[in-house]
Amino acid sequence: MDINNRKVLNKSVTGFGYFSIFLLALSLLIILLPIIINGLGAFFFKGTVEFRRVQYEKFNRGNNEDILAEINKTNVHKNYIYKKMHTFMDKIDEEEIEDSYKYEKNVNELYKLIKDLIGPPLDEDRPVLIREQYGETRWDKAEEKLDEILYKREWDYTNKDKIGRQVKTLRLNDFKGTEIEDIFRYIETNIEAIMLPEFTFYYNFLFDKSYDAHFFGGIWPEFLGTFYLALGAMIFAVPMGIIAAIYLAEYSKEGKILSILRTFISTLSGVPSIVFGLFGLAFFINTMKVSDSKSVLAGALTLALLILPTVIRSSEEAILAVPDTYREASLALGTTKLKTIIKVILPAALPGILTGVIISLGRAAGETAPIIFTAAVSVGSPLSFGEIFNQPSPALSWNIYNLVTEHEAVNEIRHVQYGMVFSLVLLVLSLNLVAVILRARITKKLRG
Amino acid sequence: MKKMFLIIIMLVMVFSLSAKDKIVIDGSTTVGPIAKAFAEYFMSINKDVNVTVSESGSGNGAKSLVNSTCNIAAMSRFMKDKEFKASVANGVMPVAHVIALDGLPIIVHPSNPVKNLSVKQIRDIYMGNITNWKAVGGPDMKIVTISRDTNSGTYETFHKLVMKKQKIGKKCEYVGSNGAVRARVQSTNAAIGYAGLGFVDNTVKALKVNGIYPSKKTVSLGTYPIARPLYMFTNTYPKMGSNLYRFITLHLSKNGQEIVKGIGFVPVTNYKKTRR
């Protein structure tokens, strides 16, 4: 080949290589960036006075006097708003106003919106539902609510042949000429004084239990559940996997049986995870009765089955990669085969084994399907160590899905969902990082 | 040193085995919000009990009760005779507790000008006889029908009360939860779907059915045509005073009713909260 042609070819191959790496980095960025930005919103945000009230009343955080001072400051405005609303609503009930029935629906809607924004009046009986006890805890949500109070969104259906158009109208127009007319201006101008937004770093989002189906608090039960499940899966899968790998690599004789066995293992790693989930339900819970309901234990066993093939394959590869000279040298010194394996081969294969183990740890932490029927629930308290044997637990991966599909008010708590996604990604990434570092250190040590 | 470590681990294990009592709830995604809120409330006054809730559909709830892998099966329909037979054969005697009432609002995208449909029109839409919104007074759009999966109690109710046990057409989309129906309708102009009362917010529009709007009043009066009770099933009536007993009677208390109402469902009693 002409030397010039070869140069061009070489360059273009390198170029393609760079391009594909660039594409990979770009797609990683496109996937990860929104997760990180939105996820950080669960930790860093402008918290309102209501947020600090929740923190104080539910988690005993903050200073009593400071909170009281803040509440007193905002109460001036709250009382003014509620007094006006209540007198007006009383008049409607007593029908003292002309055409009061016209206002009834609108005023109830407005009252509910105001309650959602600034929290219920404090002199009333406390509602039982926690979400009704507090106003908006986040400033971004409060601004949205304010917009909803000021503007009404209605649908214009005048053109019968087309779909409706959304029209934004001033809610004020519904109450023109009434005594609560000025309440809109009042809320709009005083919103900061009512909500007292303050920049907050809520690192306890990770360590707080949730209140009222994730309306308040953090994701500790989910995080802990994921941790237990992944760790439990490791405890079952790693010893079994390594022993199986040792058998396959060191003891078994090449032949038909071994190749069939290998095919089984590869097939097992290709089985869809939902099948493992159903198997776990049918075998561990309904047949073996490892626990009398879903439990972390049953989930961990199922996950262990799922990652077992990966652990076996990677360990086997690592053991096979140990040079035969190691074995020969060890045996020549007069040790037994078992000792050779434990003292010489396994340490040499450790970096490879560890990589496989930690990659599967990441997989166990992220899997959803195997734990749907065996371990995961949408609400539960954080478990202590003794409870994992017969109690189910929420887990990050499942609860992310659960929030989107089954939560009754998911639009109100998007930040929690993003926070969960972010935490899960962070967990898996940091596990992989630990694997890289560990492997590097061990390899270095082995080289001496 | 190693032995010490092992002993410490053993000690921790033994001590931590003194675990909490548990109540496991499995089943309907419609009853889910009520069950979750009850669980939260119950755990706040009984710190030594762990109440867990999973939402996997009424059918799965029944199966879990039959296999005694849950204490309470939350169901948005009554048990089928097959499920009854299976549970009695397994030594489980299901007892029904009605914890709330629910209407089944028919929901469309808020941009859809249609306001009212008759039960027969809805049936025709789902059977595939009516395929365009124009036929029921709307704009010229192909109707996208959304239904719950057949494992769902909400589906059973719809199948019985609206479809009159006739088959849903082939083009229908089946989704796995109330929230998913709402999400699908939110994002599709031409969609029609159905979900529990507690799942309807201002991102979708509930239609009048036979001229009656689904509300707490019309559901409890029985005038809204697609309404049903929501159940929790237990294995026999729980022992008086037990945690399970106190949980399953929660809906009869004033606070329980306030929770049911706060989430958007209809309490069984004529509970009313005064504004002040």
Describe the structure.
The complex is a heterodimer of chains A (448) and B (276). Chain A has a two-stranded antiparallel ribbon. In chain A, strand 5 and strand 6 (216-217) form a beta hairpin. The mean pLDDT of chain A is 89. Chain A has 2 domains: 46-200, no CATH class; 220-447, Orthogonal Bundle (MetI-like fold), CATH 1.10.3720.10. Chain A has 15 helices and 6 strands. Chain A is mainly alpha-helical and 448 residues long. Chain B is of the alpha/beta class and 276 residues long. Chain B has 2 domains: 20-101 and 228-263, 3-Layer(aba) Sandwich (D-Maltodextrin-Binding Protein, domain 2); 105-225, D-Maltodextrin-Binding Protein, domain 2. Chain B is 35% helix and 21% strand. In chain B, helix 2 (32-45) runs antiparallel to helix 10 and helix 3 runs parallel beside helix 4. Chain B is elongated, with a radius of gyration of 22 Å. Chain B starts with a helix and ends in a 13-residue tail after the last helix. The interface between A and B is large, with 54 and 64 residues.
Taken together, the total number of domains of chain B comes to 2
Q: Radius of gyration of chain A, Cα only, in angstroms?
A: 31 Å
Low-confidence stretches of chain A: none
Biggest chain-to-chain interface with counts: A-B, 54 and 64 residues
The count of strands of chain A amounts to: 6
Shape of chain B: elongated
Percent of residues in helices of chain B:
25-40%
CATH topology of the largest domain in chain A: MetI-like fold
Query: Roughly how many Å apart are the termini of chain A?
Result: 46 Å
Q: What's the CATH H-level homologous superfamily of the largest domain in chain A?
A: MetI-like
Shape of chain A: elongated
SS class of chain B: alpha/beta
In terms of DSSP E residues, the strand content of chain B is 15-25%
pLDDT averaged residue by residue of chain B = 87
How are helices and strands ordered from N to C of chain B? HEHEHEHEEEHEHEHEEEHEHH
